[in-house]
Amino acid sequence: MPISTAITSIGLVVMWSSGFIGAELGTREATADTLLMWRFIAAAAVLGGAWALLRRRKLRPRAIAEQAAIGALSQGGYLGGVVWAVGLGVPSGTTALIAALQPLAAGALAGRLLGERVSPRQWAGLAIGLGGVALVVQGDLSAGTAAAPVWAYGLPFAAMAALLAASFLERRARAPLGPVDAVPLHCLVSAVLFTGVALAGGHAAPPSSGTFWTAVAWTFLLSTVGGYGFYWLSLRRSGVTRTSALIYLTPPTTLVWAYAMFGDAPGWTALAGMAVCVIGVTAATARPVQRRMRRPEPSARRADDPVRDRAVSRVPAE
Description:
318 residues, mainly alpha
């Protein structure tokens, strides 16, 4: 794997995982729509302002329309579904497990919709990765502490489907944009979307606590700039199947974040799940080693090539 691809993959896993920690920090002080509203207002203001000053250029109307749809799905649909589900009482481990089904769905659909070949080795890696995720969240699933309504369990599925749809739309875009142009537009669309939701629910006013604004800064810098920037960069470099497979590493990496931030030590089952996830992702994303055929020595080719010998024999001597 090239160094640039490895850096992109590591950055995606680490930064994407940070979003769960930021969500926990923020929802301790406010509702999910309040956190998401101010997160994307900050992101749209900073990233949009930087784009206007440093990279201002005319975007095609088709590109704007495509990226608006992609942003609404990848940020509005995915984050709205995940954070809302957790806010309603769906355990975070259950939410992570459902969201981690995305690689299998991407692998099943990539060949049909995008023409990407999914090898048996990749299928095996994806299946192993899902087993690792199941081990990581087993303790959370068996705790039996969820108090969410039944319909709330459909939200993580909707979130996973929204992110998957955004990934396919990006790959099929007629006027694609790079992350530098696309992410500020995604944030602007999400800011409008979540502001409308928060105003409708009467949750637009932010709390005055410093913890809330720390969570806003955390989710903006690490999750939005880092997570989504690396996600779209990986999507362009590695494709849907390889990028989606890296999502398997999000739940175990989140456990490391949680231990560092809150002192929540993972158990042996979680550690075993981390190891299984690494094996599965390695199998799904590593490029197969191609054997190089050994070329015969020049003298052997001359000695064993009668056609060449006849051709040489017809060349007149000088």
